Each structure stands twice: as C-alpha cells, then as structure tokens.
Amino acid sequence: MGDPDLCDTAAKHGQLGALELLRSRQPPAPWGSSTVKSACDHGHHGIAEWLIDNDCPVDDTVAVSAAAQGNVPLLRRLRERGCHMWPDTCAAAARHGHLAALQYLRTQHIPMDELTPAAAARGGHVDVLQWTFEIECAVDESACEEAARGGQVSALRYLKRTGVPWGETVRLAALYGQLPLLRAAHELEAPFEGSTCSAAAQEQRLEVLRWLRAIGCPFDGSECETAAREGRMKVLQCLHELEALFDPSVCKAAAQAGRLAVLQWLRGIGCPFDKSACEAAAREGHLEVLQWLRAVRCPWDVDACERVATTDDMLEWVREQRLLELEAI
C-alpha cells in the first residue's frame, strides 16, 4: 500500500500533474476526503473539482471547508455527489461572512441552528447576522458570547438591539482581553460580576483588570489565590495595587504549589498565614517551603504535617522538628 499522505500533499500544493501520476500507478496511490479537503483549504478549487469528478471520496468535512471558502460551485458539486451537510457547514460559511454560500445552503434545506448566528458574530459579519434574523434562524446567548471572544463590538450592539441575552459575554470578553467590547457592554448595561475580574486575572489581562476595578466591578475572592498558585507575580502586584483581599488562603496556595519566591513576597506585603500553609507544603512534598515557613514562625500542626508528609525527607525533617520542640519544653 502506498503512502496515504502523498495525494494529500500534492493536493495541498495544487500539483495536478503529481496527482495524475500518483493515481496512474498500479496500485494507485491512496486518496480520500482529506485529499479534497486539503485542496479546498489551500484555495486550489480546480484541483478539488478534478478530484470530485474523478470519484475521490468526500464527506462532511469537505463541505465545511468549501463553505468556509464561500465556494458555491464546489458546494453544488458536493451536493450532486450526495455529500452530507450539517449545521456546522452553515456555521463555517457564516464565520467567514459568505452570505451567498449560506443562501445556497438554505435552498438545499441544510439544517441551520444557533451555530450560524454565533459564527457570524465571532467573525463580526453583521450583514450575515441580519440575514439570519430575517429568516428566523434560532439564536441564543452563544451569539453574544462569540462576539465577545472575537471582540466584535458592532455584532454585539446588533445582537443586543434584537434582545439576545448576555450569557457569559462579559466574563469571556475579560478572558480574551477584549477591552473595547467590555466598554461597549458596560455602556449597554451588561451585568459585571466577580467572575469577570477573575477571568481577567486568570489570563493576566492587567489593563482589563484595572479598568474593571475602575468601574466598580467586584472581585470574587479567587483572584489572589489563583495567581499565587500559578506564580504570577505581575498579577499579584496588580491585585495588591487594586486592594484585593490577601488572606491566609493565598499563602496556602503558594505553599501548595511550592512557590517560595511568591510566599516571600506575600509575607513582605503583610499577607497573613496560618498552619494550613505548612500542611499544604508538607502534603505536596515542598520541604524547602516548609522549612522557610517554620523559620519565619508560621504556625503549624506537627501531627498533621507528619500525617500528610509524602516523601521520606519530609517525614524525617518533621519528626526531627517534633523532637526539637519536645526537648525545648
């Protein structure tokens, strides 16, 4: 059996002569729907049509690729071959703003659902969005959410004029760092909740985070703990500047992850700690962290640390400390 990638490679690079040669061999080099898709994905529409005319297998992935390219003649060829098409075919056309392809697919009664307006919104294609509303295509909050991911302000404004619900739009805009869209959402009176700041902090969107706090968006309490666990010093510094709450859970998170430098910085700004930090370090095997915590007089429960110690070195050190404490009594 021949190399299954040869025909795909030739199609990808638009090499019709190579394809003809490969297929003239005995046995012919293998091909399949991926071969047609490779040609279509790379704009070699003539190659794709030659493949279809020569009975190369096709499937729904080829239809999605043709729709994404807005290639109506190829979609027609595929329909003639009986190629299956589903809602994701329509969504592919919508994502890339190919209204003519969508209109053709509708004449062929290809199912269209919430994916289509959501895809149009992600690509910022307001004309396609308007058409989906004209034909009464199903729509839900995913359209606003996709507009948020793509930072498509005009699409969001259109969707809100038509009454589409917010869903997770604000949080997603923060997650993806889409500040202009967040400004528009604020102007349109979207709800700004604590998860929004958390999303911005999670992805280190510091400009977004500062803006959110400036408009009064609340913290949800998880931002500092997450940043400490992941060792994100710039985020922690920004959160401190914005007067986020630093409580013992933050030191515990840093200890659990073995972030000694973070712990040292946290203590430098006066973040409190308690015995949970020592227990977390012991459980996760971070001996250096536990030793530092005890050196700076962090409270601990020696019995708990002994119970959860996961390495021989940790267990030995904890037991040594127990003996030293008993001798000091």
Please provide a written account of the structure.
By secondary structure, the chain is mostly helical. Among the domains are: 113-187, Alpha Horseshoe (Serine Threonine Protein Phosphatase 5, Tetratricopeptide repeat), CATH 1.25.40; 219-328, Ankyrin repeat-containing domain (Serine Threonine Protein Phosphatase 5, Tetratricopeptide repeat, Alpha Horseshoe), CATH 1.25.40. Helix content is 66%, strand content 0%. It contains 24 helices and no strands. The protein has helices at 6-12, 16-24, 33-41, 45-53, 60-69, 72-80, 87-95, 99-107, 115-123, 126-134, 142-150, 153-161, 169-175, 179-187, 194-202, 206-214, 223-230, 233-241, 248-256, 260-268, 275-283, 287-295, 302-308, 312-328. Helix 1 runs antiparallel to helix 2 and helix 13 (169-175) packs antiparallel against helix 14. It is elongated, with a radius of gyration of 29 Å. The termini are far apart. The model has no long low-confidence stretch (mean pLDDT 96). It comes from Tribonema minus. InterPro entries: Ankyrin_rpt-contain_sf, SecEffector_AnkRepeat. This is Ankyrin repeat domain-containing protein.
CATH topology name of one domain, in short, is Serine Threonine Protein Phosphatase 5, Tetratricopeptide repeat
Q: How would you state the average pLDDT, rounded?
A: 96
Low-confidence stretches: none
CATH architectural label of one domain:
Alpha Horseshoe
The amount of helix comes to: 55-70%
Total DSSP helices: 24
- What is the CATH homology-level superfamily of one domain? Ankyrin repeat-containing domain
**For this structure, what is the CATH class of one domain?**
Mainly Alpha
**Quaternary assembly:** single chain
Distance between the termini: 80 Å
Shape: elongated
Indicate the radius of gyration in whole angstroms.
29 Å
Please report the total strand number as a whole number: 0
Q: What kind of sheet is the major sheet? A: none
Q: Element order, helices and strands?
A: HHHHHHHHHHHHHHHHHHHHHHHH
Secondary-structure content class: mainly alpha
Strand content: under 5%
